[in-house]
Amino acid sequence: AFSAIEQYEMNLAKRLITGLAAIPNVRVFGITDPARFTERVPTVVLSIGDLNSADSAAKLDKRGIYCWHGHYYAIAICDALGQSQRGMVRLGLMHTNTREEVERTLEAVAEIARAD
């Protein structure tokens, strides 16, 4: 069961990461090379244009996409990535998520990125 869950979550994460990376004005942090996805978990951290993470999260929330924003107590990492002031948006996937939810998330992020 755990192998099936891991594979399912990684397939969702692969689609989310490759989809986000293709959206102009979106920066994905962390491992984005599909050949290295076994080295990561299905949690994705990003920034959208010049928006701070709180504004990005609010815009996603209005579209029914729930996420975290800020530094998540990973202050040193935010500092190292130059995101201390803006924070980052964090999206987490689980085996209860669907491909349709990932596609809806990508559409929402693309819409926000175009408007920024």
Structure in a nutshell:
This protein has 4 helices and 4 strands; from the N terminus they run H-E-E-H-E-H-E-H. The protein is α+β, with helices and mostly antiparallel strands. 27% of the residues are buried.
Biggest β-sheet description: 4 strands, antiparallel
What is the straight-line distance between the termini? 42 Å
Question: Outline, from the CA principal axes?
Answer: globular
Mean of pLDDT = 95
**Overall helicity:** 40-55%
Side-by-side strand order of the widest sheet? 1-2-4-3
Helix count from the secondary structure assignment = 4
Oligomer: single chain
Please tally the β strands and state the result.
Answer: 4
* Rg measurement, Å: 14 Å
Q: Give the DSSP E fraction (strand runs of 2 or more residues).
A: 15-25%
Low-confidence stretches: none
Query: Which structural class matches the secondary elements?
Result: alpha+beta
Order of helices and strands: HEEHEHEH
Describe this structure in words.
A 4-stranded antiparallel beta sheet has the order 1-2-4-3, with helices on one face. It has helices spanning 2-21, 53-62, 75-80, 99-115, and strands at residues 26-29, 43-48, 68-70, 88-92. The mean pLDDT is 95. It is an alpha+beta fold and 116 residues long. Helix 1 packs parallel to helix 4.
